[in-house]
Amino acid sequence: MTGTYFITGTDTEIGKTTCTAALTHAAAQRGLRAAGLKPVAAGQELRAGRWVNEDVALLHAAQTVGLTEQEIGPIQLRTPCAPHLAARLEGRPIRRAEVLAALRAPLPKLDLAFVEGVGGFRVPLDEEARWDSADLARDLAAPVILVAGLRLGCINHALLTAEAVSARGLTLAGWIANTVDGQMLQHGENLATLRALLPAPCLGAIPRLDSPTPEAVAAYFDAAALDRLLLNKD
């Protein structure tokens, strides 16, 4: 049975995909068949005659189990905005049953699936904005890994997200501190506060990297904490 984690973030553009790709790499290094899946992705650009979502392409490159880009990102919208709005503009409604079916299809090929949400924890997905990314995590009954973007306001955003995860009956399995603002004042002190207040282990603290490849990011993970999470090792 495939283990599934839901990857969320304190906001958009805080490194969820980078960390998801790094988790995929770290799991593969531990002998696990792993992949990052992004069921809904908004924003594509034309590359060599085909439309590509950057996040889906990164997750596809990080896995080594032979999944296609369509399996990694089954719903890709061209407009770079909130997915329910992009779907409305493009006349492509996002349907809950279709998303869940597409997510479950590649699971037999995997030991671990890291399902990445969109933006923060509560981003609307369907046309009526009645089903959001938090509901998706609950549909999957998946423990949550939070990527906390280290910049001004991160403590409030991280704690509110942790509360929202708990309110939906989900487990915050771990969190990753990802430095978004390399000039952040009191960086270490903010990180220490998050370590003290978030009710889950820190899986790693990522500095601002010039080339945040999956390998480079994974080097900053806490190996023991990750072993406990992925391999159930004490």
From TrEMBL:
Q: Is-annotated flag, keyword Magnesium?
A: yes
The residues the record assigns to binding ATP are 13-18, 55, 116-119, 178-179, 207-209
Assigned EC number: 6.3.3.3
Catalytic activity line of the entry: (7R,8S)-7,8-diammoniononanoate + CO2 + ATP = (4R,5S)-dethiobiotin + ADP + phosphate + 3 H(+)
Compartments where found: Cytoplasm
What does the entry give for GO biological process? Answer: biotin biosynthetic process
Its function, per the record, reads: Catalyzes a mechanistically unusual reaction, the ATP-dependent insertion of CO2 between the N7 and N8 nitrogen atoms of 7,8-diaminopelargonic acid (DAPA, also called 7,8-diammoniononanoate) to form a ureido ring.
Q: What is this protein called?
A: ATP-dependent dethiobiotin synthetase BioD
Q: Which organism is it from?
A: Inhella inkyongensis
**What taxonomic lineage is listed for the species of origin?**
Bacteria, Pseudomonadati, Pseudomonadota, Betaproteobacteria, Burkholderiales
